[in-house]
From TrEMBL:
Residues 20-228 form the ABC transporter domain. GO terms for molecular function: ATP binding; ATP hydrolysis activity; transmembrane transporter activity. InterPro entries: AAA+_ATPase (IPR003593), ABC_transporter-like_ATP-bd (IPR003439), ABC_transporter-like_CS (IPR017871), ABC_transpr_LolD-like (IPR015854), P-loop_NTPase (IPR027417). This is Putative ABC transport system ATP-binding protein/lipoprotein-releasing system ATP-binding protein. Belongs to the ABC transporter superfamily. Keywords: ATP-binding, Lipoprotein, Nucleotide-binding. GO terms for cellular component: plasma membrane. It comes from Microcella alkaliphila. It comes from the Bacteria. PROSITE patterns: ABC_TRANSPORTER_1 (PS00211), ABC_TRANSPORTER_2 (PS50893). Pfam families: ABC_tran.
Amino acid sequence: MSDVGTLPRPARHDAHGTLLAADDVTFGYDRAAPLLDGWSQRFDAGEVVAITGPSGRGKSTLLYLLGLMLKPSAGHILVDGVPAQALPDRERARLRAGRFGFVFQDAALDATRTVLDNVCETALYRGDDPREARMRASALMERFGVQLRAAAKPGQVSGGQAQRIALCRALLHAPQILLADEPTGNLDPDSSRVVMGAFREHAAAGAAVVIVTHDPSIVAQCDRTVEL
Ligand SMILES: Nc1ncnc2c1ncn2[C@@H]1O[C@H](COP(=O)(O)OP(=O)(O)OP(=O)(O)O)[C@@H](O)[C@H]1O
């Protein structure tokens, strides 16, 4: 993996603004036992925030709420100050594709499509030029040390490679809000360092980066920690 290279800048830049916030959020799969109960937090442009806490406490669930994949049973998720759950599903999907990047804990690559197509998925959904998206994807994949043959499928790559491919997919459209669930869990220390460097660089370009992690060395490189 290489430290050099330039990430695309987030499309909109607000150096100090709050991009994403949870306001008095309550959620539980079992309503009688909420994982979050009146939880509030804001995430600003330019910062990298670690979310920590014991296993099963609800960290991944929180990322799904922040990423508009789950709806709170009470309270609001605010994107640019606007409550997102009130939006129609299509609008929420458009907002997710336009403003969010998501690195899932298990990479969540589509096994039926090539690795390159996986990386380009969100950019193409947004309507980006396919040729240009593929060129940017190849450059990102090179940066993260996953230059694979064009026809390679997710089933043919290692766990660490899959994680880096998922990271390329999340970064390709320069999302203003990047949510990452244990993004370095399968990586060696050198690869982790490059990934954290990319997160820091992405935040410096104006994004809010939120990382769920158990790794103290990752926590140490974040601007602040939110303990669940
Ligand atoms: N789809 C679901 N339906 C019902 N319960 C769920 C669902 N997803 C997660 N849970 C439960 O909610 C709780 C929180 O899960 P979550 O994955 O958010 O925790 P976590 O803090 O990310 O854990 P870990 O650190 O082990 O990844 C767990 O008890 C889990 O079993």
